[in-house]
Amino acid sequence: MRLRTYSELRRFTTFEERFDYLSLQGEVGQATFGFDRWINQYFYRSRQWRQVRELVMFRDEACDLGIPGHDIHHGLVVHHMNPMTPEDVEQGAESILDPEYLITTTQRTHNAIHYGDQSLIPKLPVERRPGDTRLW
């Protein structure tokens, strides 16, 4: 699995390009938390996570994948671009609190990234023109 970074993500200007860069193609990661779910829940309640989460939301202007015009009005998630493991939390890996490896998403986009379901990606409204009689 390649290491994804915010610096590299910013090179992509469209939502679709950024989604393709982040997509895990249905591969959630080498290990899930399973019975160790308490580990990541402990992490997500920590003061350090809340602080970095706020910084990332501010940096991305609360826009889905940091794309202006894709404002998030509910369901905001700060996504680890590189899946976090129980060992990362237990060992205090710096990468899990580094904004270079985090991006703001909606819950729908987050699920699409993890499970490879592009049908979950929000679509921009169809631009209408005078005389256009086609249905959306």
Structure description:
By secondary structure, the protein is mainly α. Strands 1-2 form a two-stranded antiparallel ribbon. The mean pLDDT is 86. The chain has helices at 6-9, 15-22, 37-44, 47-59, 86-90, 107-115, and strands at residues 76-80, 102-106.
Task: Pick out its properties.
35% helix, 6 helices, 2 strands, 7% strand, two-stranded antiparallel ribbon, single chain, 136 residues, mainly alpha
Topology:
Blueprint: H1 6-9, H2 15-22, H3 37-44, H4 47-59, E1 76-80, H5 86-90, E2 102-106, H6 107-115
Antiparallel strand pairs: 1-2
Summarize the structure.
The chain is built from 6 helices and 2 strands. It is mostly helical and 136 residues long.
The percent range for helix content is 25-40%
Compute the number of helices.
6
Radius of gyration: 17 Å
The gross shape turns out to be: elongated
Q: What value does the average pLDDT take?
A: 86
